[in-house]
Hints:
Layout: H1 2-11, E1 36-38, H2 40-48, H3 52-62, E2 69-75, E3 79-84, H4 86-99, E4 113-117, H5 129-147, E5 151-158, H6 163-179, H7 194-207, H8 216-241, E6 248-251, H9 253-257, H10 260-270, E7 274-277, E8 280-283, E9 294-297, H11 305-319, E10 324-330, H12 337-346, E11 354-359, E12 362-366, E13 369-371, H13 383-390, H14 392-400, E14 408-411, H15 412-416, H16 423-443, H17 459-468, H18 471-481, H19 486-504, H20 513-536
Helix pairs in contact: 1-3, 2-3, 4-17, 4-20, 5-14, 6-7, 6-8, 10-11, 13-14, 16-19, 16-20, 17-19, 17-20, 19-20
Amino acid sequence: MLMQAIGEAQQAGKIPAVTLPEVTIERPQNPEHGDFASSFPLKLARAVGTNPLNLANDLVNLLVLHNEIENVTVAQPGFINFKINSNWLSEQTNSILKAGNNYGDINVGQGSRVQIEFVSVNPTGPLHVGHGRGAILGSTLANVLAAAGYDVEQEYYINDAGNQVSVFCRSLYARYQQCLYIDTEMPADGYLGDYMIDLAKDIIAKEGNKYLSQPETEAISNIGKIGLNVMLNSIKQDLELLKFKFDVWFSEQSLYDNGQYDKVMSLLRKDGYIAEREDAVWFVSTALGEDKDNVVVRGDGTPTYFATDIAYHYNKFLERQFNRVIDIWGADHQGHISRMKAVLGALGISPDRLIVIISQMVTLRRGDELVRVSKRSGDIITLREVIDEVGADACRFFFLSRTADSQMDFDLELAKKESADNPVYYVQYAHARIASILHLAQERGIDYTDGDVSLLMTDPELNLIRKMLLLPEIIEIIVNTLEPHHLTYYAQELATVFHSFYKQCRVVSQDDETLSKARLKLVKAAQIVLARTLKLMGMAAPDKM
């Protein structure tokens, strides 16, 4: 509507023949200013030196209003404000009910294939809380992108090759020997956590001391395979506690077994991006604008982490043909991004197709007290310990509540509170309250399917509808920004507006059954939207609290 009016204003000479600033529509922070607003007159006035208020009035006079718009007003110093028609708003209750559990879906993705790879921790130790944050970011993004029409695949990259796996295997064999009273030293760079002792004892309980009679290299390999399998199963169990499963568990070793590693190194060498010097093999990153070259094969002949990552992304883009790849990495991988994008360019892949999200660290607290070590082991605090203490839903909500690039404090005491202070409890209680209202209506035999939504005309009712209608917009914002924390804020706002509606509007009333039916329709629609929001976050929508 506004673009059409601007075009007419230009033709009539009310707007100078200049390059126009971008036309944007925002939602005013103050609801009294309407449902939508545009600052276009202010932007244009600054560019051409005209009066923004006069310009705004000229445009409003040229607007051809659609049925959805109730009125348009001009506000100082030159805003154009739009208010949505109340009848149209109330009718959207039926639209939400009709959409049901698919409400909020948009089709901006149009089936485009997106892979999200996250967590991907070496299977050499238990998951800690930082890994949990990455897991929840990735799984929630996958839910939202699927709701937006993308074909999404969630993947865990198993680092089952390379130096760290070798160190793990040697460390476990040393613990195995020690538990059988053989005096041996742990490797200098070994894994020293108490979990390695527990793992060695479990192997002894099942297999006895048979590995002592094997040649050391063979024993290390055999014990290592058992340990890696146990750790990987433990990781899978921890992630299932967070209420999601990966679609694909991709083995690093398969890159060597299936020839991708040799193939991609050959391609880079052929195109002149590989150089041999200083007893190592280098990727010539400087030829692509990087500050320095990067080692891909060490002097001892072993590939670096970067080398296998090149082969892995070759597999993602050129063999499995994902349109876009989203990697969620820990804070220690920040420096890996630019060289990874550089090597994609060398392979003829647009670096823009790879998006890397860095997930920052998590600090655990109990109120004002900083939690530094595990109560169980005196070592790192594992993800499972946190899930056991506060529950999966609290973990998911709290980890989502900040942008990935910001460090966060997780208050364990707050996460367990059963009060409005705890946002998890507050949001889920709103759903439970809705379920209670609908159950009461069922007990009283009220069939609200024929409810007349045109009766929903009070501010509390219309404000609730306005907030419910934001969900598709929230999904689109997350698709564009890849910031799922918007869901936590939206869930709290929706719960707040519903609680306010509940306090001001009696839903099940014996005095006015017609109005009751209309409000029950509204409440059912609110249940659909709140449940969908919780589901996108991977959380339960409880009927009782």
